[in-house]
């Protein structure tokens, strides 16, 4: 009988002497060192978290309001009301090419109304209207809206390319504050 007790004591002593290695801490993924850039003249920085919709990830980074007109490389154009510019980063985190369609994006005003982009402004400012976004690609661009002069922009609703098999997406709304 003493032998099983001695063996149990010896195993217990060995187990307490040998320490198992501590579980490895998860390593933080490295990040890119991107230089900070000054905000453009008359633009207010927007510090919004990225949002996802469909096959796209969006991050709103800037806002310009109250613009009476715009000038492009070949034209100057007056606003019907006021031009609003929303600076946005569009990213395709997927493995297939997706499509970004600026005409689907909407500006939300304080009265709850939604406004489409201004095709004239978008084209005059040489911003994409519809563009393929390759796998892992990030684009930064402006969305130009022409809204009533007294309207106050409160949010932008962003729509990504619907995943295969889905006719549309619900959109992701980002507050402009």
Automatic annotation (TrEMBL):
PROSITE patterns to which the protein is assigned, alphabetical: PROKAR_LIPOPROTEIN
InterPro entries: DUF4352 (IPR029051), Immunoprotect_excell_Ig-like (IPR029050)
Signal peptide: 1-24
Domain DUF4352 stretches: 50-158
Keyword annotations of the record: Signal
Source taxon at top rank: Bacteria
Protein name: DUF4352 domain-containing protein
Highest classification ranks of the organism: Bacteria, Bacillati, Actinomycetota, Actinomycetes, Streptosporangiales
